[in-house]
Model the fold of this input.
Amino acid sequence: MSSRQWSEEAIKTWLEAQQRYWSTLATSFNPNATTATVNNSQAPAWTNDLTKWWNTVNHDSPPQIKDVLNRVMDMGKVYLGLAEQVYSNSKADPDTPSIESWMRSLENGFNQWLQQSGQNASQLGLGQSVFEGWQQLVGNMQGMNLFREVGAGGLTMPNAGLWQEHLQRALATPSFGLSHKSQERLKKLATLALRYQQALDKYSEAFATQGQESVQALRARIQKLADQGKNISSLRELYDLWVDVSEDTYAQFAASEQYQTLYGELVNAFLLLKQGMNEHLDHEFKAFGLPVRADYEATVRKQHELKRENNTLRQQLRELDQRLKRLEQTIQTTITQEAAK
Amino acid sequence: MIPFNMRPEVLAAEVKAFNEKLTQGMGNMLAMQESMGGVTPHELVYQEDKLKLLHYTGDPAVERNPTPLLIVYALVNRPYMTDLQENRSTIKGLLDAAQDVYLIDWGYPDASDRYLTMDDYLNGYLDRCIDQLCARHQVEQVNLLGICQGGAFSLCYSALHPERVKNLVTMVTPVDFQTPDNMLSSWIQKVDVDLMVDTLGNIPGEMLNWTFLNLKPYQLMGQKYLGLVDMMDDKDVLKNFLRMEKWIFDSPDQAGETFRQFMKEFFQQNKLIKGEVEIAGRTVKLANVTMPVLNIYADQDHLVPPDASKALAQYVGSKDYAELSFNGGHIGIYVSGKAQKMIPPAIGYWLNEHA
Done:
């Protein structure tokens, strides 16, 4: 179905199908239940179900809402992930309040991220979107998609194969001309890639550390609520509290000099790598006798200078025109006055 | 005792309710047409390269301020924020306040615009737009309304060409770029801006967007969408949400050389308040901004902190300087119901008083 075919009838059919899907899913844990319940022996897979559901409809969604729907689904997965964790923890350890177990699993996630230097962004909890946003940004830049995986298992990481493979692929780009010069360029590029990975590692480590701090802050906030005799009565309240505390902790981190340095190093390391990639590609294109970025930019710069000159000349022309008109008026006035004498 | 220990079936019921709301709301989402920014009737009166100068026609029966009001929006994001929907339009409010409103739409720079400088934007495009208005209205001066970065541009222009600006209004405009609570400024301090522009050319709008969203990532990239699921059954609310969403992610790329100058001289070196910004060989001195100035800022602005705007009072040369504080945020000042009632009428009143 194309995006233009979302007629009222199609929407109705689609909705009915989706409602049947959710209804079946909700009762599958206990077919006799009138409201959704969960079989105690079975761990819920709500996030997975949402993902499956979304995968069935995503490619058909209208383009004008596709991005926003993707963002809604990303948030939904985090929210349902929270529900799953709280539920599973309460089953695994009935003597410990489910929220405490959940906070412990959050801390474990951050610890694992630190120990394995960021293999799985979902370990960052709510911070996942920040990290993935950067990866997406990097991946969308021309020629940089292969570096999107950096930080999700880099050279020094247990699953380094993936990234090494990408780097090897980049290094295997056909070289032309004298090979030793090409080798030097590739070595330089590899060095820049490593520098970028190190900057990203430092950034993500600091991010995970502030994540750990946010769990401590959340624990303190919950304790304060308990001291005040207040109660968290829903998953949504817990989610909102989690967001609130995470935002506060992040704001302190993001305003610090430490963050300023990490952010600067990350962006600069990425830019150096991108610059290295540009140079590498330029060398290869030159060897083919193709125009390169510098040639194009020289043309654009020349065109820009001509346009500025053109604007200056137009302005001068306008001013001359105005002066001429004034002169003509003066002459006309003088002639009229002379004639009147 | 920890005040949360939900029973599994209660949790499951909440999840089920969420899924149901999502499924039902999806019907409304799918039926939504693409939202278009800019709702008030307007005409194109001048065009140059990608720039468009728009005139908002309004009710012809209304007697308007004889001095045209030119809105100078930021290069970041799109100017239809000022005219997002019928009941959320600063422009409509200004028309209702008897102003003759024009707006510069800078367009979407592409690779051919990489070498556009602030000189090109101010002494070129903006100056020529003012030429057009002066010729059209047979006047020597215009009223300027600068928004955010457009406010900083308007200040520079007014300092360089004070004779052409009758009154200046600045809205959520950064002046002191290094107040302690300016997170954006803090982040850019150690970024090698030269390397960035030399490497990327134009700066991708997507990069700026990522930066802005990271000011409040948990709310802006997560919680907001959970809130949307709660509102999806209301078509009007959903429509408004999608309009705003479209605007947020509608980020033009930034012309490389202008970005270089703005980031280095304004953010990193804070030269605007030092009187050291140079444009086309001329120094921008805020002391030369001698026309009446109305400076409007938002108390809860997380992008341009209030102190960053209020600093103008210390540096501006005008003897007729006024401030207006809005109890809201950087975006709310254009789109909130409270802002509609307060901001455009106040600007209109002030401009009419200074006619």
User: Anything to note?
Assistant: DSSP finds ten helices and no strands in chain A.
